[in-house]
Amino acid sequence: MAESLLSLRINGEAVSTAAPSHWTLLEVLRYRLDLIGSKQGCDKGDCGACTVQINGEPVLACLTLAATAQRGEVRTVEGLSWAPEASQGCHPLQDAFDRWDAAQCGFCTPGILMAAEALLRKRAAVVTRDEVREALAGNLCRCTGYTKIIDAVVDASEVVFGQRGDESTDDSAQQTGS
Amino acid sequence: MSSSEPPPNVPVTPHVGKALPHESAVGHVTGAAHYTDDLLPRYADALHAWPVQSPHAHARLSQAAIDDAAALAIEGVVTVLTVADVPGANEVGPVAHDEALFPEEVMHCGQAVAWVLGETLEAAKLGAAAVVVDYEPLPAITTMRQAIAAESFLTEALVIESGDSGDVEAALAAAPHTLEGELEIGGQEHFYLETQAAIACWDEAGEVFVHSSTQHPSETQEVVARVLGLHRNRVTCQSLRMGGAFGGKEVQANPVAAVAALGAHKTGRPVRVRYDRQLDMTMTGKRHPFLARYRAGYDGDGRIVAFDLQLYSDGGYSLDLSKAIMFRALFHCDNCYRIPNLRVVGRVLRTHKTSQTAFRGFGGPQGMVAGEDMLARVAQAVGKPAHEVRALNFYAEGDRTPYGQLVRDAERIPRIWSGLMGSADFEARRAAVAEFNASHPHEKRGLAITPVKFGISFTTSFLNQAGALVLVYQDGSVQVNHGGTEMGQGLHTKMLQIAADGLGVTLDQVRLMPTRTDKVPNTSATAASSGSDLNGAAVERACAQIRERMAEVAGRRLQVPPMDLRFAGGRVFPFWCAPGHPDHGASSLGFVELAQQAYLERVSLFAAGYYRTPAIHYDEAAGRGKPFHYFAYGAAVSEVEVDGFTGQFVLRRVDILHDVGSSISPLIDRGQIEGGFIQGMGWLTSEELIWAEDGRLATRGASTYKLPTLGECPEAFHVELLPMAAEPAVVKGSKAVGEPPFMLAISVREALREAVAAFAAESNAAPVELGCPSTPEAVYWAIEGVREGRAKQVSAAE
Ligand code: FES
Ligand code: FES
To answer: What is d(CA B269, CA B201) in angstroms, rounded to the nearest whole number?
Structure first.
């Protein structure tokens, strides 16, 4: 099959690889670049597990031709920890997902994080539960029942933009668990 | 090894009972957690497999006549697997050996008849499209009613019958009132986010190694060995972690692994099989659709005196686990209610569909929905609130189920019930709902409370066993292997907590290993909610043996009787010198130092733990026994608001009180309750499988099959764990939590029934005929029914 050369910017780095010209960004990430954090849940735009960001906008990597992604700055879950707002290599969203146990099997998590991160960056404020519902409407999770995902995203926005600053202690997790 | 309970270690600050995040939490959020198909980059020359799928639901074909010439001519197509390549048995059925891997008789639409291996996935797909198969179509049975008419059965009739008055017919005849009902209950697609996947490779020693997304590595190993004609000691299966499973990978992962292993056998190269979503939906089994027909006898207060229930399940084309699933439906039709005269007869139907399989609850939910449907109709018939009629019929301490098992801790049912009614403010909200309904002709609200009693254990008694292998290294680090698989339910987290407390070390000293058949053999599936009960006990026992041996060594060093030593926080000390005691430092020993010392003294630092659930048995013929170790209880209150023009509804609020015993991991248990409830709600209110008349599955993706999304989540969701609920017969006093909460969602359907009933004219006492799943469409038709009094009147014998 005819392969063409792709020049992409992914997580702040220039990468080039050859891949069939009809391949999606998801295929190139997973099968050429070994960036397996973005998941294949449905291959047709129904589940959101493959969500990455291009120029800060959440997009479905399974519906994006890799060739068209060359024009933008791609960010995947592997690049989340290097974000400027990250403290000690861990994004507040990642930290909140861990504290709230918002991932069970974790398969939906990378996509949800990328969609949620875009929401927090755009809103640049503490978000409401309804805003989270809307921003993540395209992401399926079969395990959690979503409640803890909403909790975690709201919590992360409070850590970043709210009064609480950095002292996101374990209290919140303890409270949910008590 | 001894089968008596090991002496417990009493850590000062135990890990068990703490709200800890998932063992793989960091991997999940960084993308570093690998799932089976993520391992593909490690196999540079892996081949990709794609099936040739039958377009017919039922057809004959000749494997020998499959024409692969055109496929092989395609660049990148390496080979086509047919029955001729099978060195062992062409058979992958789990219980009855009735599933051909390469069939000569196609039994469902979408069934794989051959597999193409390609250098790329594209090549394999193109190759599969080019394979020519000559099908001779045969008549197909595609609905339950057709199957009943054709007497197409996969099992004999399974029966449980019990009665105070000896005979259900007589009890029905003598009952003050009777009614009858019929209900079709829909199936459910698992829709684990990670589809079925396996990678197999053949190693230099002539062994097959299979990475499989399986809940049951031992059976996957067995099926691979069967197909390859090998002993099991030449097949190793590893289940790293799964992106959800819910029962769908209990047996249905086996053919996936078998194809990968067979391809590796034929080509000598690694072979990867990964279903895409459409393959997964068209090739794998689902929750069984059921048909329930019943008659109930009751008195004027709504007390049930007799219940005669007939259940049919749509088993699809082969037996799979359908018989055990039907048994669990029989065991759960009573739910929390004492029914003095009961006969339930279940039969599995054979249809030309995917072979329906395990799914969270395993038939229990279908049986329970039928029972609750009956209760709701009785309540309506006697004109009393449903919650009162339910409570009137509760089991009391000392009662036995229809199959003869004592309902131990039956007092928890009313305790949960009244506790939840209080915390959910049930009575006041009932009044508020009535007030709302009186002033809103086009929207109605419904409020309902329903209970759950769910039996824990595999009902196939011999499956209730588990093993663990715990290894302590000289540097004090620990590896824990056990037979259970991690599918997101948090099993590994709980095992980590138990192991850390068992050895008195910190969590970061313990590593949970991927589940492999060469570490713990002959394991049971991680299923029936029993993963942590069984494996937890095995892990605890393994740790206890190591601890006892290490205590001997420490006792000599510290000049203290070994039995007086405690292991905690990575140190070993006499119980009177706990951390904080001034002498603690001087009179204690580090776990690391002790591990080294034990090695030098030639003391073994590894142990196997084994556990079997005591005293469970069931006699199928008699319909009597004690199939369950214990029951888990819970209840939920749901409030809905329904739009009378469209049938659309919103779930306004949910309150749950659930019994998890003494929770090992409260954060994880809450997650199981929330997730189970929403999944149950999806089954009962939005997920609808539709098969076309010719047997094709019409709903083959999330675009046509409506899963719950964030939008369907209740606006308010309160989950509480029942306090003071230790279960003495289970490791750490805990209770299983995987399945029971699923059935709490019956409260949503019952709330919808209440709302629908509120659309009826005062005078119209026709029962609510609410389809199941109770989708907005079904709710709409139910409203139309009660509005026009069109619902058929049931025979109210008097
Ligand atoms: S894999 Fe892209 S949306 Fe599902
Ligand atoms: S955590 Fe399993 S799908 Fe979301």
So the answer is: 6
**Residue A176: per-residue pLDDT:** 36
CA distance linking residue B317 with residue B297, whole number of Å: 36
Q: How far is Cα B410 from Cα A40, in angstroms, rounded to an integer?
A: 45
Is the sign of the CA dihedral B255, B256, B257, B262 positive or negative? positive
Neighbouring CB atoms inside 10 A of B138's CB total: 14
Asked if the Cβ–Cβ distance from B37 to A106 is below 8 Å, we say no
CA distance B308 to A100: 46
Whether the pLDDT of residue A173 is over 90: the answer is no
What's the gap between Cα B400 and its chain centre? 25
* Residue B530: predicted pLDDT: 85
Nearest CA in chain A to B723: A178
pLDDT score, position B1: 38
Beta-sheet pairing, B290-298 with B177-185: antiparallel
Which ipTM was obtained for this model? Answer: 0.94
Condensed to tens digits (0 to 9), the pLDDT of residues A82-125 reads: 555 545 668 999 999 999 999 999 999 999 999 999 999 999 99
**CA distance linking residue B777 with residue B758, whole number of Å:** 17
Testing the interface with B: which of A22, A142, A149 to mutate, by most B Cβ within 10 A? A142
Per residue in B572-594, pLDDT (tens digit) is: 999 998 888 888 888 899 999 99
Which alpha helices (DSSP H) does B467-566 contain, by range? 491-503, 531-558
Evaluate whether A3-78 and A83-173 have a shared fold.
no
**Beta-carbon neighbour count of residue B206 at 10 Å?**
8
Question: For the domain bounded by A3-78, which CATH number is listed?
Answer: 3.10.20.30
The whole-model pTM stands at: 0.95
> Are B30 and A47 inside 8 Å of each other by CB?
no
Kindly tell me the sign of the dihedral angle through the C-alpha atoms of B151, B152, B156, B158: negative
Across the interface, whether the CB atoms of B676 and A145 are under 8 A apart is answered: yes
Contact indicator for B718, B657 with CB cutoff of 8 Å = no
Report the distance separating Cα B332 and Cα B451, nearest Å.
12
Average pLDDT over residues B452-460: 93
Taking a C-beta distance cutoff of 8 angstroms, is the pair B446, B752 a contact?
Answer: yes
**Residue whose C-alpha is closest to residue B708's, from B739, B686, B688:** B686
Nearest-atom number in ligand 1 for the CA of A42 is: 4
B260 Cα: distance to centroid of ligand 1 (angstroms): 24
| Residues in contact with B664: Cβ distance below 8 Å, sequence separation at least 6, in sequence order | B16, B17, B494, B497, B498, B532, B536, B731, B732, B734
Cβ–Cβ below 8 Å for B490 and A104: yes
Q: State the burial class of residue B232 (Cβ atoms within 10 Å of its Cβ: 0-12, 13-18, 19+).
A: middle
What is the best residue among A47, A54, A141 to mutate for testing ligand 1's pocket, by most ligand atoms within 8 Å of CB?
Answer: A47
Set of chain A residues whose Cβ sits within 8 Å of the Cβ of B191: 140, 142
Return the ligand number nearest the Cα of A103. Answer: 2
User: Ligand 1 site: residues with CB under 6 angstroms?
Assistant: A 40-43, 45-50, 60, 62
- CA of residue B282 to ligand 1 center, whole Å: 18
- Which of these is catalytic: B161, B250, B688, B739? B739
Q: Tell me what pLDDT residue A1 has.
A: 62
Strand ranges in B74-157 using DSSP code E only, listed in sequence order: 77-81, 105-106, 112-118, 136-137
> What is the Å distance from ligand 1's center to B494 Cα?
31
Residue B798 falls in the annotated catalytic set: no
A83-173 belongs to which CATH class?
mainly alpha
H or E stretch at B512: strand B510-512
Q: Which domains does chain B have, with CATH numbers?
A: 25-33+465-612 (3.30.365.10), 412-452+630-798 (3.30.365.10)
H runs (alpha helix) in B383-470 = 386-392, 412-423, 426-439
